[in-house]
Amino acid sequence: MSWFKLSSRDVAFVAVFAALSAIICKIVPGIPIVGVSDSRIQFDAAVAPIYGLVIGPYLGFLAGFMGGIIVAGSWLSVLTSFCTGISALMAGLLTQKNYRSSGHSIRGWLVATVVLSLLILGWYATPIGQEASLYPILHFLGIAIILVFRGWISTSFEKGAEKKEKSGVSKPNYVFSGILIAVLGFVISKSYFVEIWKSFPYVSILLYFLSVIMILYGLFGGRTFVVAVFVACYCGIIADHMLGSIIYREMFSLSPEVFMSVLPIAAVERFVFTTIATLIGVALVLTIRAAGFFPRRLQQEPKDK
């Protein structure tokens, strides 16, 4: 399989990104996890999808996993090292036209859909997951986005990475509207609104997602490259989130009520991570490409129909 043929540049990027993950885990304080004492969500979750964007799904997975293993101090942290790996894998698959194995080829977005679907099935595999049946709402949204965009994601990513796309124009009205929508989402998630209608927190999740899209569109104009990076990063980050949720569910036997109570908080957290990953990812890919050091071999194939 050709993807095993590594260049010195590939090895260097894997080492750099693994070291970056380890440094972030050591230096940047994590986010406390509700219901689990002395456990935190490490901030490297916000940058893991970038590894897949830059060096592809397989090497990206390796870099994310190795970064976690370097600083792992327990079996829990060893297991959660797979979370950053799966995030990079998803982002890399979505921005790669084809997944090749043993002489066979399949669209990258199809493989990504299977990976995310298996994670969701893993959530429903136990009674706790079945009781918290609405918990994967962020992840079903990810599958829906993949099925809507499909091969457009990789096509737009390659077009932008090759600098064939004209720069967008900032649109302040979209940024302002996005901020207002985010504020609205925050307000309706408050307890006094939940007393009126219990589904308000889930509506707020959709509003947060819409606000992030509008803010990014407002900042970068109509650049489809940015949208492709955003979608890839979002799907990577929620894959990380689902795998992490399954690991914590099995290790700590958390109740369905705990998972559902933190879902609105998790939504905000993941959208913030996605925004950070998108901003850094867009800048890094374009910078590396302009310098002539972009390690991925972008494929020249017809656009998906």
Explain the overall architecture.
- The protein has about 300 residues and is mostly helical.
- It is built from 13 helices and four strands.
- The chain has one domain (about 1-165, about 225-290): Arp2/3 complex 21 kDa subunit ARPC3 (Orthogonal Bundle).
- The protein is about 70% helix and about 5% strand.
- Strands 1-2 form a two-stranded antiparallel sheet.
- The chain is globular and about 55 Å long.
- The protein starts with 7 loop residues before the first helix and ends in a 15-residue tail after the last helix.
What share of residues is helical? Answer: 55-70%
Give the terminus-to-terminus CA distance: 27 Å
Count of extended strands:
4
Beta-strand fraction estimate: under 5%
Provide mean pLDDT, rounded: 83
Sheet with the most strands?
A: 2 strands, antiparallel
Radius of gyration from the CA trace? 19 Å
Morphology call: globular
Number of helices: 13
- Proper CATH architecture: Orthogonal Bundle
* CATH fold node name: Arp2/3 complex 21 kDa subunit ARPC3
Task: Report strand order across the widest sheet.
Answer: 1-2
Uncertain parts: 300-305
- Structural class assignment: mainly alpha
Helix-strand pattern: HEEHHHEEHHHHHHHHH
What is the C-level CATH assignment?
Mainly Alpha
How many structural domains in the coordinates?
1
